[in-house]
């Protein structure tokens, strides 16, 4: 049997690091990765020194450098694109990481527990937070209706789960966005997609035979 340390290294990105059950999630995700002959790498890995440092600018910038270093050493990535802090959009730091991995032409897949369209997420956010609905505008030069939020900003990325650059970069890297109500189910589906990208369509059969 191959040494798990020699499996392709997969960066596990997302807002997971901010969740109370982050360590339990990463433990479960890494177990799923091993089943698929992948080596999951948490943003916490190799950052034990950070816990002893005081909060502040230098510590925050150190975390950014360490995360970038982890991504440089990884072969692929799995990203959670769940809405962040009750808003419509995902964690901005994770969006940066998706762009960074895309620039290195590394395979990626994404997952979410929120299968609503981006348009619906924005609409729900503004109605709940500001009690203001979206409005329609039909420009004379456009063939389609535009939706505007309370600040007259266009609600974009029709038909997608998140910003088109986020989902587009993941899809251009060969991946897809898995959707499931349970985050572990969503992660597993995305991990299977990523393993297929790395190993080919025979990944699941190979894993079942050990």
From TrEMBL:
GO molecular function: 5-hydroxymethyl-dUMP N-hydrolase activity; transferase activity
InterPro entries cross-referenced by the UniProt entry: 2'-dNMP_N-hydrolase, Nucleoside_deoxyribTrfase
Origin species: Acetobacter persici
Biological-process GO terms, alphabetical: deoxyribonucleoside monophosphate catabolic process
SUPFAM superfamilies, per database record: N-(deoxy)ribosyltransferase-like
Keywords attached to this entry: Transferase
Name under which the protein is recorded: Nucleoside 2-deoxyribosyltransferase
Lineage: Bacteria, Pseudomonadati, Pseudomonadota, Alphaproteobacteria, Acetobacterales
Gene3D superfamilies for the chain: 3.40.50.450
């Amino acid at each position: 049997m191959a040494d798990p340390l020699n499996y392709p290294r997969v960066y596990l990105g997302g807002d997971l690091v901010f969740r109370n059950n982050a360590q339990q999630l990463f433990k479960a995700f890494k177990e799923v990765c091993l089943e698929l002959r992948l080596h999951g790498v948490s943003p916490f890995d190799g950052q034990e020194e950070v816990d002893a440092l005081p909060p502040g600018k230098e510590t925050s910038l150190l975390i950014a450098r360490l995360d970038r270093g982890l991504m440089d050493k990884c072969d692929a990535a799995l990203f959670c694109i769940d809405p962040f802090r009750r808003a419509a959009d995902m964690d901005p730091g994770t969006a940066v990481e998706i762009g960074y991995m895309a620039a290195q032409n590394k395979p990626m897949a994404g997952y979410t527990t929120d299968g609503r369209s981006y348009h619906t997420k924005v609409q729900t956010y503004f109605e709940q937070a500001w009690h203001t609905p979206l409005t329609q505008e039909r420009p004379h030069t456009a063939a389609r209706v535009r939706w505007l939020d309370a600040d007259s900003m266009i609600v974009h990325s029709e038909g997608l789960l998140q910003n088109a650059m986020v989902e587009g970069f993941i899809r251009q890297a060969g991946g897809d966005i898995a959707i499931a109500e349970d985050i572990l189910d969503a992660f597993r589906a995305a991990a299977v997609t990523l393993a297929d990208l790395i190993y080919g369509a025979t990944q699941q059969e190979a894993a079942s035979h050990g």
